[in-house]
Amino acid sequence: MVDDGPVSDGDGARLVASLRMVNACAQAMIRATDELTLASEICRLAVAHGGYQLAWVGATAPGEAPSVRPIACAGPAAEHLDVAAQTCAEAACARAPT
Question: How far is residue 7's CA from residue 66's CA, in Å, rounded to a whole number?
Fold first, then answer.
């Protein structure tokens, strides 16, 4: 194990928030009854507990040109997701792993 020295209060708070988010996501996985509900809940938890402005889950659709389309999202920045997805579909990132 590598010890980088003491953890600052800010680092400690982010770590605690991350652990709470992971725990809440694990609980959501246990309770999930379908993929879309789970994806929406994971996004909601990432924003609520992780402090993210945007969380989203994407999927490719069979037969479509290589692109990723959002199937779930949460956060105040979610309104910008459609623009980002369109831009990505037109760019080189549509041909790369996401």
Answer: 43
